[in-house]
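Progress note, sequence design subtask.
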């Protein structure tokens, strides 16, 4: 053990303690307010719906606590417990040590272990919590089918990317991290291009919006906002869940607008238009570009940090590994970094919430705040989103503003 070991353990310990404290605060806060609908929602949300949201929130938080503690155990077993070192030695009997095949097998093996560790929680979340609260529509067969497709898509995209990254780390000298960064940016652009037409249709069916009146309203809004798109589509989200949503996908003029069929079935045309105006607000206020620039800047800094750590013996030894190599450095970095950056989550959420408020304000200008308020309240109800989250818990975990603050701002805009 060295100084980095103590820093790693301290980050895990402090982060775990804060997570447990936040979860306790959140459950207590929600439970305390479960029998009273907040004043801003008293005329829109029934007590029964409010109590359902409280129960749903508490159930998910309890599962999150167990999942988090188990994840910490798996992380410690892989690092300080010698799991990565043991797995590296096992693969060395099959592949040349520190070769590309060895590196891909090592990283893939660890991802497989963590994926298997997460699987029981995914099953419980889907078939117990989601089913109990009336949201789940996934059958066991569909669950297995989705999981198989995810593994195949992940392998088809991830293995070639990993090979290129490892090759660059080995062949590009001291500046390999910059070339890896360029590759990472190109990969993200590629995903944006192929996701709407290649990846997403593997999991869901996308049909052109057939409601002529609604489509005409949407086209008028798009023209008013100067937004060009390849089409407006409806996704069969009801195949898996009763939750509703809408999103943009694609790049440049190939952007698509996608509505969940569950959302269209619940909202009135004016409310759907308001939801779309909110999403258009992100486009008009350049939020997607700003977030992409920030993400790429952070990733560049992380890769520069990895380049330094990969040369330090204490980095490997501090995480329970004796075999140095590019794949080992990359893997240990992926495993260790989340424990240190958890404390910065509120900063990222603060930035994201600022964008959500700006998008709300844009939607209020284009379609009117009352329509967006009605749409959001319906979505909160349909998704059983708590109206009374603990403020500190929300600051750490929620990229969107709490319901009460968001509706209050929209009501001020309406006045």
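Output:
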């Amino acid at each position: 053990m060295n100084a980095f070991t103590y820093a790693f353990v301290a980050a895990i310990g402090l982060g775990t303690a804060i997570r447990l404290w936040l979860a306790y605060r959140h459950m207590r806060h929600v439970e305390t307010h479960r029998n009273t609908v907040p004043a801003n929602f008293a005329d829109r949300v029934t007590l029964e719906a409010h109590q359902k949201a409280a129960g749903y929130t508490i159930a998910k938080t309890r599962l999150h606590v167990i999942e988090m503690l188990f994840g910490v155990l798996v992380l410690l077993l892989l690092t300080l417990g010698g799991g990565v070192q043991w797995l590296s030695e096992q693969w060395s009997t099959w592949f040349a040590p520190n070769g590309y095949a060895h590196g891909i097998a090592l990283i893939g093996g660890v991802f497989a272990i963590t994926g298997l560790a997460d699987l029981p929680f995914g099953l419980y979340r889907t078939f117990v919590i989601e089913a109990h609260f009336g949201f789940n529509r996934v059958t066991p067969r569909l669950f297995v089918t989705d999981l198989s497709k995810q593994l195949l898509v992940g392998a088809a995209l991830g293995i070639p990317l990993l090979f290129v990254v490892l090759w660059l780390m080995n062949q590009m000298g001291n500046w390999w991290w910059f070339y890896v960064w360029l590759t990472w940016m190109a990969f993200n652009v590629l995903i944006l291009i192929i996701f709407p037409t290649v990846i997403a249709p593997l999991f869901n069916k996308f049909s052109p919006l057939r409601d002529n009146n609604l489509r005409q309203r949407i086209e008028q809004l798009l023209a008013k906002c100067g937004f060009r798109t390849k089409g407006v589509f409806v996704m069969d989200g009801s195949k898996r869940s009763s939750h509703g949503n809408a999103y943009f996908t694609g790049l440049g003029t190939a952007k698509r607008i996608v509505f969940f069929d569950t959302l269209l079935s619940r909202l009135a045309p004016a409310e759907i238009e308001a939801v779309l105006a909110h999403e258009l607000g992100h486009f008009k206020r350049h939020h997607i570009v700003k977030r992409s620039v920030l993400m790429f800047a952070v990733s560049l800094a992380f890769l520069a940090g990895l380049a330094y750590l990969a040369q330090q013996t204490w980095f490997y030894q501090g995480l329970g590994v004796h075999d140095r190599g590019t794949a080992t450095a990359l893997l240990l970095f992926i495993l260790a970094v989340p424990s240190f950056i958890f404390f910065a989550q509120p900063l990222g959420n603060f930035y994201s919430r600022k964008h959500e408020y700006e998008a709300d304000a844009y939607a209020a200008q284009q379609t009117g705040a009352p329509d967006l308020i009605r749409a959001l309240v319906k979505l909160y109800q349909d998704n059983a989103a708590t109206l009374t989250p603990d403020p500190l818990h929300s600051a750490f975990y929620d990229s969107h503003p709490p319901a009460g603050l968001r509706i209050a701002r929209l009501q001020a805009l309406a006045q």
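The first helix runs from residue 3 to 32. Work on this subtask will continue into the next period as scheduled.
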